[in-house]
Design goal:
With 435 residues, the chain is α+β, with helices and mostly antiparallel strands. 41% of the residues lie in helices and 20% in strands. The chain has three domains: 138 residues, BirA Bifunctional Protein, domain 2 (2-Layer Sandwich); 160 residues, 2-Layer Sandwich (BirA Bifunctional Protein, domain 2); 94 residues, Anticodon-binding domain (Rossmann fold, 3-Layer(aba) Sandwich), CATH 3.40.50.800. It has 18 helices and 17 strands. Strands 1, 5, 6, 7, 8, 9, 10, 11 and 12 form a nine-stranded mixed β-sheet that branches. A five-stranded mixed β-sheet has the order 14-13-15-16-17, with helices on both faces. A hairpin with a 5-residue loop joins strand 3 and strand 4. It is elongated and about 95 Å long. Bound molecules: histidyl-adenosine monophosphate (HAM).
Length: 435
């Protein structure tokens, strides 16, 4: 009986694993160079942790289970609640600000589609304990730093920035009551994701009053900071939020990534816990789902029983990113191919000598392989080429008698005969632990 893989999961064969490692290694490298420290948490948590503040969409997508003790658990659909829990747990001991990153494996029971699976990896960067817009800019800068690092340019991707705080203040000034805000956010978040008429219809259902509806529609059309400035009165609640966006964009300009970034009121974000600046990165053509998303969540730690401490961050999945990098031809050149330093090829029966050489090379820190089949030299050289061996060590009875080995450079094809001991003493040991 053949058992198929579970819908929405992936098998990572070695070439797929090489791509995954390339993506994850890049995330880690960029996190470290931007001053973040790595953390991780458990893959499952109490179910109620996600029911508190992640929002209905995430709750509907949970993979939940009951353990033998009758406890309701869920596989993590995101790591932000775990981060809030961990930080609250050691709030007094942790040096602030907290600037952490993680690459968790996540699970969401979504309908699998292009760029959305049921199991995926997500890069997270978060800064906790600083309430200045400068820090939101730092999160966005780090995100762009990664995108640039893998070869994406402003013509390929756009960071769309907005503010929940601004939206809340504007909607309140239009007479929308507090308790309607959350359901309205869910609809407004669909602006760029649905056909215009479907969006308008959904919005009209949420906002029955024609005048309010017209004002909201007009606000959602504004896509430049100067235009936004004209609409907002100095001294109003909206004005403070407007100034925050301006400051974030100005900081990003100063840091040299302004051409990646734009103001877009259609970015509201699906998750319920965002309170301030929010952003998403999209492919410039707009064909794919969001590459990443994040924002400020100043109440989450408090909602999880901790102190009122501000936080901001973002999450980037590996799926859409991989599709885009493939489309742009950026993977072929950059993903490292399988490669080994030495392949040991034997001519005839040379007893254990080949294994002695292999073991010595490996103990010196070199990667080395050998064929498990007894075949002719040409077959072994083929195997060496398939593994991208840098050099081939060739050894037969003749060489053995004279304590010599043949070294073939696989790139040039040049071959030389050298003394075995001379060869080894000429090698720098690449790691500690040599014999
Ligand atoms: P999110 O918008 O739910 O935010 O997810 C962020 C990113 O994760 C998405 O833009 C996408 O790249 C990826 N993603 C989400 N769902 C899937 C899926 N089913 N398959 C593949 N990729 C997916 C969060 O998760 C927030 N916790 C991010 C955050 C961190 N905000 C502040 N700190």
């Amino acid at each position: 009986m053949k058992i198929p893989p579970v819908k929405g999961t992936r098998d990572f064969y070695p070439p797929d694993m090489a791509i995954r490692n390339f993506i994850v290694d890049g995330w880690k490298k960029v996190s470290l160079r931007n001053g973040f420290e790595e953390y991780d948490g458990p893959i499952f948590e109490y179910l109620k942790m996600y029911q508190i503040k992640s929002g209905d969409e995430i709750v509907e997508q949970l993979f939940s289970l009951t353990d033998r003790g009758g406890r309701d658990l869920a596989l993590r659909p995101e790591i932000t609640p775990t981060l809030a829990r961990m930080v609250n747990q050691q709030i007094n001991a942790l040096p602030k600000p907290i600037k952490w990153f993680s690459v968790p494996r996540l699970f969401r029971a979504e309908r699998p589609q292009k760029g959305r699976l049921r199991e995926f990896f997500q890069w997270n960067i978060d800064i906790i304990g600083v309430d200045q817009p400068l820090v939101d800019a730092e999160i966005i800068f780090t995100t762009v730093d990664y995108l640039r690092n893998v070869g994406l340019a402003p013509k390929d991707v756009k960071v769309k920035i907005s503010s929940r705080k601004l939206l809340a203040a504007v909607l309140k000034s239009y007479g929308v009551p507090d308790e309607k805000l959350e359901s309205l956010y869910v609809v407004l978040d669909k602006k760029g994701k649905l056909p215009a008429d479907t969006f308008e219809q959904m919005l009209a259902e949420q906002v029955p009053d024609k005048e309010t509806l017209a004002k909201i529609s007009e606000f959602m059309q504004i896509d430049s900071i100067p235009e936004l400035g004209e609409l907002i009165d100095a001294g109003s609640e909206e004005f403070a939020a407007y100034n925050e966006i301006k400051e974030v964009l100005a900081t990003l300009e100063t840091m040299g990534v302004g051409d990646f970034c734009i103001y877009d009121p259609g970015i509201v974000r699906g998750l319920a816990y965002y309170t301030g600046i929010v952003f998403e990165v999209h492919d410039a053509v707009g064909d794919l789902r969001a590459i990443c998303g994040g924002g400020r969540y100043d109440n989450l730690l408090r909602d999880f029983g901790g102190p009122a401490i501000s936080a901001t961050g973002m999450g980037m999945g590996d799926c859409v990113l991989e599709i885009l990098l493939k489309e742009k031809g950026l993977l072929d050149q950059q993903v490292p191919k399988r490669q080994i330093d030495y392949f040991v090829a034997c001519i005839g029966d040379i007893g254990n000598e080949a294994w002695r050489i292999i073991a010595k090379l490996r103990s010196m820190g070199y990667s080395a392989n050998i064929s498990y089949k007894t075949g002719g030299l040409s077959k072994q050289l083929k195997e060496a080429s398939a593994q991208n061996a840098n050099k081939c060590i060739i050894i037969g009875e003749e060489e053995l008698k004279e304590s010599k080995i043949g070294i073939k450079d696989m790139a040039t094809g040049e071959q030389e005969l050298v003394g075995r001991d001379e060869f080894f003493s000429g090698l720098d040991s690449a790691v500690v632990g040599t014999e």
